[in-house]
Amino acid sequence: MPNNTFNSLQKFKVGRKTAQFYSLPALGRSLGIDMKRLPVSIRIVLESVLRNCDGSKVTEQHVRELAGWKANARRTTEIPFVVARVVLQDFTGVPLLADVAAMRSVAERMGKDPKRIEPLVPVDLVVDHSVMIDYFGTPKALGMNMQAEFHRNRERYQFLKWGMQAFNTFGVVPPGVGIVHQVNLEYLARGVHHDAKNNIYYPDTLVGTDSHTTMINGIGVVGWGVGGIEAEAGMLGQPVYILTPDVVGVELKGELRGGVTATDLVLTITEMLRREKVVGSFVEFCGPGTSSLSVTDRATIGNMAPEYGATMGFFPVDDRTIEYFKGTGRSNEEIEALKAYFKAQEMYGIPRASDISYSKLLTLDLSTVTPSLAGPKRPQDRIELGKVKDTFADLYSRKTAENGFNQPAANLGKTYTTSAGTEIHNGDIVIAAITSCTNTSNPSVMLAAGLLAKKAVEAGLKVPKRIKTSLAPGSRVVTEYLTKTGLLPYLEKLGFAVAAYGCTTCIGNAGDLTPDMNQAINDHDLVCAAVLSGNRNFEARIHPNVKANFLASPPLVVAYALSGTMLRDLMTEPVGKGKKGNVWLGDIWPSNAEVQALLSQAMDPDAFRANYSQIKSKPGKLWQQVAGVQGEVYDWPESTYIAEPPFFTDFGMRPAPMPQVRGARVLAIFGDSVTTDHISPAGSIKENSPAGVWLKQHGVAKQDFNSYGSRRGNHEVMMRGTFANVRIKNLMIPANPDGSRFEGGETLHQPDGSRMSIYDAAMKYVADGVPTVVFGGEEYGTGSSRDWAAKGTQLLGVQAVIARSFERIHRSNLVGMGVLPLQFKGQDSAVSLGITGEETFDISGIENGITPQQDVTLTIHRKDGSKQDVTMLLRIDTATEVDYYQNGGILPYVLRDLLAA
């Protein structure tokens, strides 16, 4: 029977039918609280706590605490959030499935029923991260890239097919359908769910194993990205625990000016909110400007919440949401239920800023937003379009510490020639990609790109042949409306033919440049550029040899491809020469009226229904030809893609004693903004890297290496790839004579000081029984949600990561893998304390038990025999995280819970 905590189980009308719901207004009356003053996002989480109140994991006290949320209270309590579903992509989903399969293997070996390990909420995995841009610039590229994808990833797809038949609630959206977040927005999201047994409606909520899961916030769904290890716990019946958050209100006023895109808006918001330090907060949009934004514009803003550091960027349900559900082919019953439910909860409509008590209220006038790009190394570094040329020229010779490239200014204008006779210069664009979930879900910017391409072709403009161009729509519906409006042929003429339906260039699956281009870039240390409509542009993410990466709207991607260089000011200089002379950006930039005239073609309910019906009826011949292993327990055949993970080696029902950190050595010292891409790269595997050497030893040819992301189901590859990014800078390695830092995953093994790969040094320490620690600066672990950044750290024997500050998901993942996150206090840092890597370290203060966010002591033993005690903040934030750490991590904790049942 469902609970009726605080007499909150009430009735409401859905059309002509009567149904039940957990009424927040009724809860407010019972507790004497004005629910309308709570942020809408908090209310949706509160509904889940109320509905799942079982007196055990979720208690009445949890309900009272969250219902009594105060805008500026000290955050010490945790919320047990039970989600309606879980969404995965294949790079993070495959290792998650491997962990769950390993749990079943453990259960079988212990004589328990393997079916005890079963997702208790629906889990959808969308295969979108595997396809690479090997072929481009031709309509045949899509088919050729998919053939290559299936050839490389057959073992992974066989494993996914095993999962589909082994678990009752695990579904897969096969390759070639679209990007997970757009598929989630257009198809998987239900708005509200219906428990038919008890006739109860409740809101759609989720977590996903991709940081950009927050795109779903654009349609009023509460959800965010978590690491795979946390998602596993959620899908196996554990609440997702979070500290009660601050909620920052962002009041939008006015309207966007003509020629300004949603991409320009989200880059402005990212810059603003990163500056306001909203890390770990919910961000909720309100005000009249919010009401003016389309759902796809809202989704673009929600998508980039990780880039501005928020847990999510949330938009309440309103008439625009209903319009979107109608336009994407949802059923009349679903739409009727969505509207009736949110009206019954008194949560329908965009609130005014004065309606809600926010922790902080910020305001942005939409009319002040200007055309912009972001780069060359971080998404929050916005540059107005008219300043791009000068900014690039300035950064070219600035020091690396100042976000520059540390190159001689005299080389900026030089011409170089590749061995194939192609002229190339610093600042030249070599990759231009319309890609990623952020923008390809938004028809206004996609149609603008097509219209700009049409005008450019008609004016006689061409894209230089050296540029690798690609179009990777977020779903097949995008191709359909670009075809229907007659714009796709113009994009194809400029090289932007559909090359894949997947993340591609945005996650480093750009494919390689030509050998002569690679050689010229490396021989002359050229700073060439990529321009993409993505959300991430961290160093070496897009391509290891492309140092400058700029985020831009799809039409600006086309415009910059036409110009061929970052050293042309598109506001004051022509884009290029056409049939009748110079062509300026204003000549080819589409008007808002031109875009609006075509938008109706993009929201065709029949097209959406027809497209997504094919997932089950016509999943594609390549997918149908993949044969999966049968049975409840995976048999772990020999594979360089999938291997039984070692996280349950020597597993027992009693946790091992907590490790004591004594005499630890430093594995690496890093500066600020070390991303999860730096820690665990997703892109190409270098032949001479530890991972490349291991693959060759196991008979894998270089052309079949694939990528780190696609091999996340094999721990042998991934632990060798940890800290192996070609752009990572370990401050233990002495600086070059010019002051620049060595880039690459190397370290100095102590006490002998010999230089080697971080992996090799880690294995020597493990063999000698020496614990290790890693030091970092501000925003350690920013970027993707990838759990392998924490898993790899743990497998290298690292006991603690000590940093100035942590990004939310990575800190949680470290705790989930049994690695201590310690945070410096005040102005302390590895640099200010003079830490070089020659010291040894003890960590004390947790021997007799742990309390959340307690102080611990880091004792530094220096080479000269002196020692220093430094007080640190233990970033195990909640009581639940204490349990996880004491169990050796979240996975052993959950497995013990399931097997003890």
Automatic annotation (TrEMBL):
Catalytic activity, reaction form: citrate = D-threo-isocitrate
PROSITE patterns linked: ACONITASE_1, ACONITASE_2
E.C. code: 4.2.1.3
Keywords attached to this entry: 4Fe-4S, Iron, Iron-sulfur, Lyase, Metal-binding
Signal peptide region: none
InterPro entries noted in UniProt: AcnA_IRP_Swivel (IPR044137), Acoase/IPM_deHydtase_lsu_aba (IPR001030), Aconitase/IRP2 (IPR006249), Aconitase_4Fe-4S_BS (IPR018136), AconitaseA/IPMdHydase_ssu_swvl (IPR000573)
Enzyme class per UniProt: lyase
Required cofactor(s): [4Fe-4S] cluster
Domain Aconitase A/isopropylmalate dehydratase small subunit swivel stretches: 693-825
Matching Pfam families: Aconitase, Aconitase_C
Single GO molecular function: aconitate hydratase activity
Residue span(s) of domain Aconitase/3-isopropylmalate dehydratase large subunit alpha/beta/alpha: 69-564
Taxonomic superkingdom: Bacteria
NCBIfam families, per the entry: aconitase_1, PRK09277.1, PRK12881.1
PANTHER family: ACONITASE/IRON-RESPONSIVE ELEMENT FAMILY MEMBER
Primary role: Catalyzes the isomerization of citrate to isocitrate via cis-aconitate.
Family under the similarity heading: Belongs to the aconitase/IPM isomerase family.
This protein's name: Aconitate hydratase
Gene for this chain: acnA
